[in-house]
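Thread: quick sanity check before group meeting

JM: Hey all, I'm pulling together slides for Thursday and realized we never actually wrote out the predicted structure for the chain we discussed last week. Dropping the sequence here so it's in one place. If anyone has concerns about the input, flag it before I start.
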Amino acid sequence: MKKLISLLIIALAVLPVSAQIRGNNIVVKVSPDHKDWNYKAGEKAVFSVEVLRSSTLLDNVEVYYEAGPDMYPDVKKQAVLKDGTMKYTATMKKPGFYRLKVKAHVGNKDYEGSCTAAFSPEEIKPFAQCPNDFDTFWQNALKDARNNELNPTRTLLPERCTKDVNVYEVSFVNNRWGSRIYGILCIPVTPGKYPALLRVPGAGVRPYSGDIYTASKGAITLEIGVHGIPVTMAQHIYDRLLDGALNNYWDSNVNDPDKNAYKRIVTGAVRSVDYIASLPEWDGKIIGVTGASQGGFLSIAVAALDKRITFMGAVHDAMCDYEAETHGTAGGWPHYFLYDNADPKKVEGARYYDGVNFARRLSCNCWFSFGYNDEVVPPTSSYGTYNIVTAPKKLSVYQQTSHFWYQEQWDEWQSWLLEQMNIK
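JM (edit): ok, ran it. Output follows.
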Protein backbone atom coordinates (compact mmCIF):
# COMPACT_ATOMS: atom_id res chain seq x y z
CA MET A 1 0.00 0.00 0.00
CA LYS A 2 2.85 2.40 0.87
CA LYS A 3 4.42 1.65 -2.50
CA LEU A 4 1.14 2.41 -4.28
CA ILE A 5 0.73 5.73 -2.46
CA SER A 6 4.31 6.68 -3.34
CA LEU A 7 3.64 5.97 -7.02
CA LEU A 8 0.52 8.13 -6.94
CA ILE A 9 2.44 11.01 -5.37
CA ILE A 10 5.14 10.75 -8.05
CA ALA A 11 2.51 10.64 -10.80
CA LEU A 12 0.84 13.78 -9.48
CA ALA A 13 4.19 15.53 -9.17
CA VAL A 14 5.04 15.06 -12.84
CA LEU A 15 1.71 16.24 -14.25
CA PRO A 16 2.29 19.01 -16.84
CA VAL A 17 2.42 22.40 -15.17
CA SER A 18 0.41 23.90 -18.06
CA ALA A 19 -2.58 21.79 -17.07
CA GLN A 20 -2.68 23.68 -13.74
CA ILE A 21 -2.44 27.25 -15.10
CA ARG A 22 -5.71 29.04 -15.74
CA GLY A 23 -6.29 32.75 -16.33
CA ASN A 24 -4.64 35.75 -14.65
CA ASN A 25 -4.90 37.06 -11.12
CA ILE A 26 -4.78 40.61 -12.53
CA VAL A 27 -7.69 41.52 -14.79
CA VAL A 28 -8.50 44.69 -16.74
CA LYS A 29 -12.27 44.91 -16.97
CA VAL A 30 -13.84 47.35 -19.43
CA SER A 31 -17.66 47.53 -19.45
CA PRO A 32 -20.29 49.64 -21.24
CA ASP A 33 -23.35 51.13 -19.56
CA HIS A 34 -25.70 49.30 -21.96
CA LYS A 35 -26.03 45.59 -21.27
CA ASP A 36 -26.26 44.71 -24.96
CA TRP A 37 -23.30 47.02 -25.84
CA ASN A 38 -25.59 48.69 -28.41
CA TYR A 39 -26.33 52.42 -28.82
CA LYS A 40 -28.07 54.63 -31.33
CA ALA A 41 -25.83 56.79 -33.51
CA GLY A 42 -25.27 60.07 -31.67
CA GLU A 43 -25.99 58.53 -28.26
CA LYS A 44 -23.30 58.64 -25.55
CA ALA A 45 -21.64 55.44 -24.38
CA VAL A 46 -20.04 55.43 -20.94
CA PHE A 47 -17.26 52.89 -20.40
CA SER A 48 -16.23 51.80 -16.90
CA VAL A 49 -12.66 50.59 -16.37
CA GLU A 50 -11.58 48.50 -13.39
CA VAL A 51 -8.12 47.05 -12.79
CA LEU A 52 -8.46 44.14 -10.40
CA ARG A 53 -6.10 41.92 -8.47
CA SER A 54 -7.72 38.96 -6.74
CA SER A 55 -11.06 40.50 -7.75
CA THR A 56 -10.35 43.70 -5.79
CA LEU A 57 -9.40 47.10 -7.17
CA LEU A 58 -5.70 47.82 -7.58
CA ASP A 59 -4.55 51.26 -6.38
CA ASN A 60 -2.24 53.63 -8.25
CA VAL A 61 -2.03 51.54 -11.38
CA GLU A 62 -0.44 52.90 -14.55
CA VAL A 63 -2.52 52.44 -17.69
CA TYR A 64 -2.18 53.21 -21.35
CA TYR A 65 -5.40 53.42 -23.32
CA GLU A 66 -6.43 53.99 -26.89
CA ALA A 67 -9.89 54.61 -28.23
CA GLY A 68 -11.71 55.37 -31.43
CA PRO A 69 -13.57 53.80 -34.35
CA ASP A 70 -12.99 50.06 -34.89
CA MET A 71 -9.35 49.53 -36.07
CA TYR A 72 -8.76 53.30 -36.28
CA PRO A 73 -8.06 54.63 -32.76
CA ASP A 74 -7.65 58.40 -32.64
CA VAL A 75 -7.14 58.78 -28.87
CA LYS A 76 -3.91 57.51 -27.25
CA LYS A 77 -3.20 58.47 -23.64
CA GLN A 78 -1.57 57.41 -20.37
CA ALA A 79 -2.93 57.80 -16.86
CA VAL A 80 -2.53 56.67 -13.25
CA LEU A 81 -5.73 55.28 -11.75
CA LYS A 82 -5.54 56.09 -8.02
CA ASP A 83 -8.36 53.74 -7.05
CA GLY A 84 -8.04 51.41 -10.05
CA THR A 85 -11.07 52.83 -11.86
CA MET A 86 -11.78 55.16 -14.76
CA LYS A 87 -14.77 56.43 -16.73
CA TYR A 88 -14.61 57.16 -20.43
CA THR A 89 -17.38 58.65 -22.58
CA ALA A 90 -17.60 58.42 -26.35
CA THR A 91 -20.06 58.59 -29.21
CA MET A 92 -20.32 58.06 -32.97
CA LYS A 93 -22.51 60.15 -35.22
CA LYS A 94 -22.80 57.46 -37.88
CA PRO A 95 -23.32 53.67 -37.69
CA GLY A 96 -20.23 51.77 -36.63
CA PHE A 97 -18.21 50.41 -33.72
CA TYR A 98 -16.16 52.30 -31.15
CA ARG A 99 -13.46 50.51 -29.16
CA LEU A 100 -11.78 51.40 -25.87
CA LYS A 101 -8.69 49.30 -25.18
CA VAL A 102 -6.87 49.62 -21.85
CA LYS A 103 -3.46 48.21 -20.98
CA ALA A 104 -2.37 48.15 -17.33
CA HIS A 105 1.31 47.88 -16.43
CA VAL A 106 1.71 45.92 -13.20
CA GLY A 107 5.13 44.72 -12.11
CA ASN A 108 6.95 43.74 -15.26
CA LYS A 109 3.86 42.70 -17.20
CA ASP A 110 1.07 44.29 -19.19
CA TYR A 111 -2.56 43.24 -18.84
CA GLU A 112 -5.16 44.24 -21.40
CA GLY A 113 -8.90 44.63 -21.56
CA SER A 114 -11.22 46.14 -24.13
CA CYS A 115 -14.83 46.93 -24.90
CA THR A 116 -16.33 47.74 -28.29
CA ALA A 117 -19.64 49.56 -28.40
CA ALA A 118 -21.95 49.31 -31.41
CA PHE A 119 -23.72 52.41 -32.74
CA SER A 120 -26.77 51.59 -34.87
CA PRO A 121 -25.02 48.44 -36.18
CA GLU A 122 -28.08 47.29 -38.12
CA GLU A 123 -27.57 50.32 -40.37
CA ILE A 124 -23.94 49.58 -41.32
CA LYS A 125 -23.53 49.26 -45.06
CA PRO A 126 -20.48 47.60 -46.67
CA PHE A 127 -18.36 49.45 -49.21
CA ALA A 128 -17.57 46.44 -51.41
CA GLN A 129 -18.41 46.92 -55.07
CA CYS A 130 -19.28 43.95 -57.25
CA PRO A 131 -17.60 43.41 -60.64
CA ASN A 132 -20.02 43.24 -63.55
CA ASP A 133 -18.66 39.84 -64.55
CA PHE A 134 -18.59 38.38 -61.01
CA ASP A 135 -21.14 35.65 -61.76
CA THR A 136 -19.59 34.82 -65.12
CA PHE A 137 -16.13 34.61 -63.55
CA TRP A 138 -17.21 32.02 -61.01
CA GLN A 139 -19.47 30.10 -63.39
CA ASN A 140 -16.52 29.67 -65.74
CA ALA A 141 -14.16 28.72 -62.90
CA LEU A 142 -16.50 25.93 -61.77
CA LYS A 143 -17.26 24.83 -65.32
CA ASP A 144 -13.55 24.48 -66.07
CA ALA A 145 -13.00 22.52 -62.85
CA ARG A 146 -15.91 20.20 -63.53
CA ASN A 147 -14.47 19.28 -66.90
CA ASN A 148 -12.24 17.02 -64.79
CA GLU A 149 -13.63 13.88 -63.16
CA LEU A 150 -13.39 13.75 -59.37
CA ASN A 151 -11.28 10.57 -59.47
CA PRO A 152 -11.71 10.10 -55.71
CA THR A 153 -9.51 8.10 -53.35
CA ARG A 154 -10.46 6.80 -49.92
CA THR A 155 -8.25 5.32 -47.19
CA LEU A 156 -9.70 3.93 -43.98
CA LEU A 157 -8.10 5.28 -40.78
CA PRO A 158 -8.72 2.39 -38.35
CA GLU A 159 -7.15 4.20 -35.40
CA ARG A 160 -9.75 6.99 -35.69
CA CYS A 161 -12.82 4.83 -36.28
CA THR A 162 -15.35 4.28 -33.51
CA LYS A 163 -18.10 1.73 -33.05
CA ASP A 164 -20.50 4.24 -34.65
CA VAL A 165 -18.38 5.99 -37.28
CA ASN A 166 -16.00 4.96 -40.05
CA VAL A 167 -13.28 7.54 -40.66
CA TYR A 168 -11.36 7.96 -43.92
CA GLU A 169 -8.80 10.24 -45.47
CA VAL A 170 -10.14 11.11 -48.92
CA SER A 171 -9.00 13.11 -51.91
CA PHE A 172 -10.47 14.18 -55.25
CA VAL A 173 -9.59 16.36 -58.21
CA ASN A 174 -10.03 20.07 -57.76
CA ASN A 175 -9.68 22.59 -60.59
CA ARG A 176 -7.35 20.62 -62.88
CA TRP A 177 -5.87 17.16 -63.19
CA GLY A 178 -3.22 16.62 -60.51
CA SER A 179 -4.60 19.38 -58.28
CA ARG A 180 -6.48 17.69 -55.44
CA ILE A 181 -8.46 18.44 -52.31
CA TYR A 182 -7.79 16.28 -49.24
CA GLY A 183 -10.04 15.82 -46.25
CA ILE A 184 -11.37 13.60 -43.49
CA LEU A 185 -14.67 11.88 -44.28
CA CYS A 186 -16.80 10.45 -41.47
CA ILE A 187 -19.75 8.16 -42.25
CA PRO A 188 -22.05 6.40 -39.76
CA VAL A 189 -21.45 2.64 -39.56
CA THR A 190 -25.14 1.84 -39.71
CA PRO A 191 -26.24 1.57 -43.37
CA GLY A 192 -28.66 4.28 -44.46
CA LYS A 193 -29.14 7.65 -46.09
CA TYR A 194 -27.86 10.67 -44.17
CA PRO A 195 -27.76 14.48 -44.31
CA ALA A 196 -24.29 15.95 -44.81
CA LEU A 197 -22.10 18.71 -43.40
CA LEU A 198 -19.01 20.21 -45.05
CA ARG A 199 -16.54 21.84 -42.67
CA VAL A 200 -14.21 24.38 -44.27
CA PRO A 201 -11.03 25.59 -42.55
CA GLY A 202 -9.75 28.77 -41.04
CA ALA A 203 -6.54 30.30 -42.37
CA GLY A 204 -3.28 28.43 -41.94
CA VAL A 205 -1.77 25.06 -42.77
CA ARG A 206 -2.49 22.11 -40.49
CA PRO A 207 -3.65 18.49 -40.21
CA TYR A 208 -7.33 17.65 -39.59
CA SER A 209 -9.12 15.14 -37.38
CA GLY A 210 -12.59 15.08 -38.93
CA ASP A 211 -15.96 15.72 -37.31
CA ILE A 212 -16.61 12.35 -35.69
CA TYR A 213 -19.00 13.82 -33.11
CA THR A 214 -21.55 15.09 -35.64
CA ALA A 215 -21.25 11.90 -37.69
CA SER A 216 -22.03 9.85 -34.59
CA LYS A 217 -25.32 11.74 -34.31
CA GLY A 218 -26.34 10.57 -37.79
CA ALA A 219 -24.70 12.65 -40.52
CA ILE A 220 -22.00 12.47 -43.15
CA THR A 221 -19.24 14.96 -42.37
CA LEU A 222 -16.33 16.07 -44.53
CA GLU A 223 -13.63 18.30 -43.09
CA ILE A 224 -11.26 19.55 -45.79
CA GLY A 225 -7.87 21.14 -46.12
CA VAL A 226 -7.53 23.58 -49.01
CA HIS A 227 -3.86 23.43 -49.96
CA GLY A 228 -3.80 20.29 -52.09
CA ILE A 229 -1.78 18.25 -49.58
CA PRO A 230 -2.70 15.26 -47.39
CA VAL A 231 -4.22 16.22 -44.04
CA THR A 232 -2.77 13.42 -41.88
CA MET A 233 0.93 14.27 -41.91
CA ALA A 234 3.08 15.32 -38.93
CA GLN A 235 2.57 18.87 -37.67
CA HIS A 236 6.14 19.95 -38.42
CA ILE A 237 5.54 19.42 -42.16
CA TYR A 238 2.67 21.92 -42.15
CA ASP A 239 4.75 24.34 -40.09
CA ARG A 240 7.52 24.22 -42.70
CA LEU A 241 5.04 24.75 -45.52
CA LEU A 242 3.51 27.76 -43.78
CA ASP A 243 6.98 29.22 -43.30
CA GLY A 244 7.96 28.31 -46.85
CA ALA A 245 5.95 27.66 -50.00
CA LEU A 246 2.59 28.59 -48.44
CA ASN A 247 3.79 31.64 -46.54
CA ASN A 248 1.26 34.47 -46.91
CA TYR A 249 -0.73 32.47 -49.46
CA TRP A 250 -3.70 34.74 -48.68
CA ASP A 251 -1.81 37.69 -50.14
CA SER A 252 -0.81 36.19 -53.49
CA ASN A 253 -1.81 37.82 -56.77
CA VAL A 254 -4.64 39.84 -55.28
CA ASN A 255 -4.50 42.13 -58.31
CA ASP A 256 -5.07 39.20 -60.72
CA PRO A 257 -8.32 37.25 -60.08
CA ASP A 258 -7.22 34.35 -62.29
CA LYS A 259 -3.97 33.85 -60.36
CA ASN A 260 -5.29 34.54 -56.87
CA ALA A 261 -4.70 31.54 -54.58
CA TYR A 262 -8.33 31.70 -53.47
CA LYS A 263 -9.58 30.83 -56.94
CA ARG A 264 -8.29 27.32 -56.39
CA ILE A 265 -9.37 27.30 -52.73
CA VAL A 266 -12.96 28.42 -53.36
CA THR A 267 -13.31 26.09 -56.34
CA GLY A 268 -12.01 23.20 -54.25
CA ALA A 269 -14.52 23.89 -51.51
CA VAL A 270 -17.36 23.75 -54.05
CA ARG A 271 -15.91 20.58 -55.54
CA SER A 272 -16.20 19.13 -52.04
CA VAL A 273 -19.96 19.50 -52.41
CA ASP A 274 -19.69 17.58 -55.71
CA TYR A 275 -17.84 14.83 -53.85
CA ILE A 276 -20.39 14.60 -51.04
CA ALA A 277 -23.22 14.53 -53.58
CA SER A 278 -21.55 11.53 -55.24
CA LEU A 279 -21.69 9.44 -52.06
CA PRO A 280 -24.40 6.75 -52.03
CA GLU A 281 -24.92 7.39 -48.30
CA TRP A 282 -26.04 11.01 -48.83
CA ASP A 283 -29.80 11.50 -48.57
CA GLY A 284 -29.84 13.74 -51.65
CA LYS A 285 -31.65 16.52 -49.78
CA ILE A 286 -29.80 18.15 -46.89
CA ILE A 287 -26.25 19.46 -47.07
CA GLY A 288 -24.73 22.34 -45.16
CA VAL A 289 -21.42 24.14 -44.91
CA THR A 290 -19.81 25.77 -41.90
CA GLY A 291 -16.56 27.33 -40.74
CA ALA A 292 -14.93 30.15 -38.82
CA SER A 293 -12.72 33.07 -39.91
CA GLN A 294 -11.39 32.10 -43.37
CA GLY A 295 -13.84 29.21 -43.03
CA GLY A 296 -16.63 31.72 -42.47
CA PHE A 297 -15.82 33.33 -45.80
CA LEU A 298 -15.57 29.95 -47.52
CA SER A 299 -18.93 28.93 -46.06
CA ILE A 300 -20.55 32.05 -47.53
CA ALA A 301 -18.83 31.52 -50.89
CA VAL A 302 -19.79 27.84 -51.18
CA ALA A 303 -23.40 28.49 -50.21
CA ALA A 304 -23.61 31.32 -52.75
CA LEU A 305 -22.08 29.32 -55.60
CA ASP A 306 -23.82 25.97 -55.06
CA LYS A 307 -27.59 26.01 -54.62
CA ARG A 308 -27.58 22.42 -53.36
CA ILE A 309 -26.47 23.89 -50.01
CA THR A 310 -29.48 24.04 -47.69
CA PHE A 311 -27.87 25.77 -44.70
CA MET A 312 -24.77 27.80 -43.88
CA GLY A 313 -23.14 28.71 -40.56
CA ALA A 314 -20.42 31.38 -40.46
CA VAL A 315 -18.52 32.42 -37.33
CA HIS A 316 -16.48 35.67 -37.32
CA ASP A 317 -16.40 35.59 -41.11
CA ALA A 318 -13.11 36.91 -42.50
CA MET A 319 -12.43 38.33 -45.97
CA CYS A 320 -15.47 40.60 -46.05
CA ASP A 321 -15.54 44.25 -47.17
CA TYR A 322 -11.85 44.80 -47.89
CA GLU A 323 -12.78 48.00 -49.67
CA ALA A 324 -13.96 49.64 -46.45
CA GLU A 325 -10.33 50.32 -45.56
CA THR A 326 -9.97 52.57 -48.61
CA HIS A 327 -12.62 54.74 -46.90
CA GLY A 328 -11.00 54.73 -43.44
CA THR A 329 -13.43 52.12 -42.08
CA ALA A 330 -12.57 48.71 -40.61
CA GLY A 331 -12.51 45.98 -43.24
CA GLY A 332 -12.04 42.24 -43.09
CA TRP A 333 -8.92 40.11 -42.64
CA PRO A 334 -6.34 39.98 -44.18
CA HIS A 335 -6.64 43.78 -44.27
CA TYR A 336 -5.19 44.35 -47.72
CA PHE A 337 -5.70 48.09 -47.55
CA LEU A 338 -5.28 48.94 -43.85
CA TYR A 339 -1.66 50.01 -44.34
CA ASP A 340 -1.65 49.96 -48.14
CA ASN A 341 -1.86 52.73 -50.70
CA ALA A 342 -4.75 50.82 -52.28
CA ASP A 343 -3.48 50.20 -55.79
CA PRO A 344 -6.61 50.32 -58.02
CA LYS A 345 -5.77 46.99 -59.67
CA LYS A 346 -5.52 45.33 -56.27
CA VAL A 347 -8.84 46.85 -55.18
CA GLU A 348 -10.52 45.61 -58.36
CA GLY A 349 -8.99 42.15 -58.05
CA ALA A 350 -10.01 41.76 -54.41
CA ARG A 351 -13.68 42.30 -55.29
CA TYR A 352 -13.88 38.82 -56.85
CA TYR A 353 -12.95 37.37 -53.46
CA ASP A 354 -14.90 39.66 -51.14
CA GLY A 355 -17.33 37.79 -48.92
CA VAL A 356 -19.81 40.65 -49.25
CA ASN A 357 -20.30 39.91 -52.94
CA PHE A 358 -20.97 36.25 -52.18
CA ALA A 359 -23.24 37.13 -49.26
CA ARG A 360 -25.44 39.15 -51.61
CA ARG A 361 -26.17 35.88 -53.43
CA LEU A 362 -27.10 33.67 -50.46
CA SER A 363 -30.47 31.94 -50.55
CA CYS A 364 -30.25 29.14 -47.93
CA ASN A 365 -30.83 29.28 -44.17
CA CYS A 366 -27.97 31.24 -42.58
CA TRP A 367 -26.55 31.54 -39.06
CA PHE A 368 -23.94 34.19 -38.23
CA SER A 369 -22.03 34.73 -35.01
CA PHE A 370 -19.15 37.01 -34.01
CA GLY A 371 -17.76 39.12 -31.19
CA TYR A 372 -17.55 42.89 -30.85
CA ASN A 373 -13.99 42.76 -29.48
CA ASP A 374 -12.54 40.97 -32.50
CA GLU A 375 -9.55 42.83 -33.97
CA VAL A 376 -8.73 40.16 -36.58
CA VAL A 377 -12.20 40.15 -38.11
CA PRO A 378 -13.66 43.53 -37.06
CA PRO A 379 -17.34 43.54 -36.14
CA THR A 380 -17.86 46.43 -38.56
CA SER A 381 -17.16 44.12 -41.50
CA SER A 382 -19.11 41.19 -40.06
CA TYR A 383 -22.20 43.23 -39.21
CA GLY A 384 -22.15 45.00 -42.57
CA THR A 385 -21.96 41.65 -44.33
CA TYR A 386 -24.85 40.27 -42.28
CA ASN A 387 -26.95 43.33 -43.06
CA ILE A 388 -26.90 42.81 -46.83
CA VAL A 389 -27.97 39.13 -46.65
CA THR A 390 -31.54 38.75 -47.95
CA ALA A 391 -31.79 35.00 -47.31
CA PRO A 392 -33.40 33.62 -44.12
CA LYS A 393 -30.88 34.50 -41.43
CA LYS A 394 -30.16 34.55 -37.74
CA LEU A 395 -27.50 36.52 -35.86
CA SER A 396 -26.07 35.46 -32.50
CA VAL A 397 -23.66 38.02 -31.05
CA TYR A 398 -21.26 37.24 -28.19
CA GLN A 399 -20.11 40.78 -27.56
CA GLN A 400 -17.08 40.10 -25.37
CA THR A 401 -15.41 37.54 -27.62
CA SER A 402 -12.41 38.42 -29.72
CA HIS A 403 -11.13 36.06 -32.43
CA PHE A 404 -12.28 32.98 -30.53
CA TRP A 405 -15.53 31.60 -29.23
CA TYR A 406 -16.94 30.82 -25.81
CA GLN A 407 -18.23 27.38 -24.90
CA GLU A 408 -21.81 28.66 -25.01
CA GLN A 409 -21.23 30.06 -28.48
CA TRP A 410 -19.78 26.76 -29.69
CA ASP A 411 -22.69 24.83 -28.19
CA GLU A 412 -25.23 27.10 -29.87
CA TRP A 413 -23.41 26.77 -33.18
CA GLN A 414 -23.38 22.98 -33.06
CA SER A 415 -27.01 22.80 -31.93
CA TRP A 416 -28.08 24.96 -34.88
CA LEU A 417 -26.20 22.73 -37.32
CA LEU A 418 -27.85 19.59 -35.91
CA GLU A 419 -31.26 21.27 -36.03
CA GLN A 420 -30.77 22.05 -39.73
CA MET A 421 -30.09 18.37 -40.35
CA ASN A 422 -33.13 17.31 -38.29
CA ILE A 423 -30.85 15.58 -35.79
CA LYS A 424 -31.70 15.59 -32.10
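AS: nice. Residues 3-15 have pLDDT under 50 and may be disordered. The two ends are 48 Å apart (CA to CA).
JM: adding both to the slides.
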